[in-house]
Specification:
Blueprint (H helix, E strand, L loop, with lengths): L1 E6 L4 E7 L2 H18 L12 H33 L8 E8 L2 E8 L3 E3 L18 H13 L2 E4 L9 E10 L9 E11 L28 E7 L13 E15 L5 H6 L6 H35 L1 E3 L2 H21 L4 H7 L4 H29 L4 E2 H18 L2 H8 L1 H29 L12 E2 L6 H7 L3 H7 L10 H4 L23
Antiparallel strand pairs: 1-2, 2-4, 3-4, 5-11, 6-10, 7-8, 7-10, 9-10, 12-13
Length: 515
């Protein structure tokens, strides 16, 4: 057997393997026997037909294909070992160059090469902005607003008022081949926010609702707006739209008093003071989490930008499959078919994958490679105490999400346990890496002594895996200590300042439209 090895720039090994004709002939004989054993050939018992009989019945192509399969089973690992190749994934038979002599070309993905550069020289100040206690008042006011009573306003629209209206819009001076319509006449409702409130993803553009300050029942108003050149919707970029607003009614919101009766309507037995304290604690935690996420995202991006990496195309293809499955899964939960979604986006499937799936997959893959390289470079060992804490957190999240029983049923106990353990492991290693990078980026010394909880030789212990597969009753008992913190979790997920508030049913204009 003669092997020609070429290591390509894309981290693939190209192996051209040439077999002596008599050796490959032996593989073909074995292949014919295997075919005969599993075939029904008139006049012969299974496995007893001669090579020539099998050849005449199934053709040389079938025998060669089976021979190649046997060859791969027998020799593939030997070929890699002989050439000193450590693959990062499954290789494939790229082509058959010839049959006389038998010559096969294999493409083998290699481990990626990652050069982090001088990442230890990167500096980034860690400075958490002081939490604004006003956020607690805003959050509680938002809950009160959601429970408000709607009453007619006896004055022109002002901040905090709810406006019901019909909206239509079109682009000014469209080109001949362009559709001028932005929206046909639709029912709409908005809550006019304060000047210092974030309009978020307000439609048709941020700040639109404050254009309605001063309107009255029955008013008609035209609003002109030029969209930015970098607008996320290409059809809107740099264009000017004219919107027609037909005001149906202006309403005030009569907010309930923040007292024990109101807190009880939220499903809590706390006093208003206790409830406020819990809201503040949760918002402070979220404030910290948001800052940390932005801080480490920026830090990782800076490290990634200076990192030089090369990886085989198979790794990106594999990540693309994962991203695509994630997209399809999310669409399925929303009750939408993937093919329908792609058509709505006015793209064919290949274009969608190229423009939207591949960039996400590339970013995820490269981020993962940088993280792995950093963990190796810093020689981080798994902290068992942090692992157990994260394991409990993951299990608690599963219990309170209500998805655990369904996931256990779909995956099976063993796979479910493995999945939970791996998620806990990844969280732990990411937390440890972030702690280390924070020290490096802020110029602080790195501790010399390893924690007593470090486990240098193993990632997950059997004990950890067993703990991940406890019964539901045990998990709920273990999660009791965090139950108090979760009492307001449902309310905390309501961040929008312009949550939909329904008009009394006896008024036709109360039909709710999507912002």
């Amino acid at each position: 057997m003669k092997i020609d090895k070429v290591i390509q720039e894309d981290r693939q090994a190209k192996l051209t393997v040439e077999y002596p004709k008599d050796v490959f002939e032996g593989f073909k004989r074995r292949a014919a026997k295997k075919i005969a054993k599993n075939a029904t050939i008139p006049g012969f018992r299974p496995g007893k037909a001669s090579y020539q009989v099998v050849l005449s019945h199934y053709g040389e192509g079938s025998i060669i294909q089976e021979a190649i399969d046997i060859l791969l089973d027998d020799d593939y690992a030997k070929i890699l070992d002989q050439e000193g190749i450590k693959p990062s994934g499954s290789g494939n038979l790229e082509s058959i160059e010839s049959y006389d002599p038998p010559k096969f070309v294999f493409m083998i993905p290699l481990e990626p090469e990652v050069d982090l550069g001088d990442y230890k020289e990167i500096r980034k100040e860690y400075q958490l902005v002081e939490f604004d206690i006003k956020e607690v008042d805003d959050f509680i006011d938002n809950m009160r607003r959601n429970a408000a009573t709607i009453i007619p306003a006896s004055h022109p629209a002002k901040e905090g008022n709810l406006i019901y209206f019909n909206l239509s819009g079109e682009f000014l001076n469209p080109k001949e081949d362009e559709d001028a319509s932005i929206t046909e006449k639709i029912n709409q409702q908005v809550l006019i926010p304060a000047a210092d409130e974030d309009p978020g993803n307000e439609w048709p553009y941020p700040g639109f609702s404050r254009e309605l300050l001063g309107v009255k029942d029955g008013d008609t108003k035209e609003i002109q707006h030029t969209f930015p050149k970098d607008h996320e919707n290409e059809e809107y970029q740099g264009k000017t739209g004219l919107f027609n607003v037909e005001v149906q009614s202006v309403k005030e919101l009569e907010l309930p008093v923040f007292d024990e009766d109101f807190v009880q309507t939220l499903g809590s037995d706390d006093s208003p003071e206790e409830f406020r304290e819990k809201v503040e604690a949760r918002l402070r935690d979220q404030h910290q989490i948001t800052y940390d996420q932005e801080y480490f995202d920026d830090l990782f991006n800076e490290i990634t930008e200076q990192t030089k990496m090369t990886y085989p195309p198979q790794m990106l293809e594999h990540e693309e499959e994962h991203v695509l499955e994630d997209v399809k899964s999310r669409l399925e939960k929303q009750g939408m078919n993937f093919e329908t979604y792609v058509k709505i986006r006015s793209k064919d499937e290949e274009t969608f994958k190229e423009e939207e799936i591949r960039p996400v997959a590339k970013q995820r893959l490269e981020r993962s490679l940088v993280v792995d390289a950093l963990i190796e470079a810093e020689d981080l060992k798994l902290n068992q105490e942090m692992l157990k804490e994260n394991l409990n957190n993951v299990m608690s999240e599963m219990v309170y999400s209500g998805d655990m029983a369904e996931m256990q049923k779909e995956m099976g106990k063993e796979q479910f346990s493995r999945t939970i353990s791996m998620e806990s492991f990844q969280r732990t290693m990411n937390e440890q890496l972030q702690e280390r990078l924070k020290l490096i980026a802020t110029g602080q010394p790195i501790p010399d002594e390893e924690s007593e909880n470090d486990a240098p030789d193993e990632v997950l212990t059997e004990e950890d895996t067993d703990e991940a597969s406890q019964s539901d009753e045990d998990l709920i008992e273990n999660a009791d200590d965090v139950e108090d913190e979760l009492n307001v979790s449902e309310e905390m997920s309501t961040e929008s300042k312009d949550a939909a508030v329904e008009e009394p049913s006896d008024e036709d204009e109360a039909e709710e439209s999507e912002d």
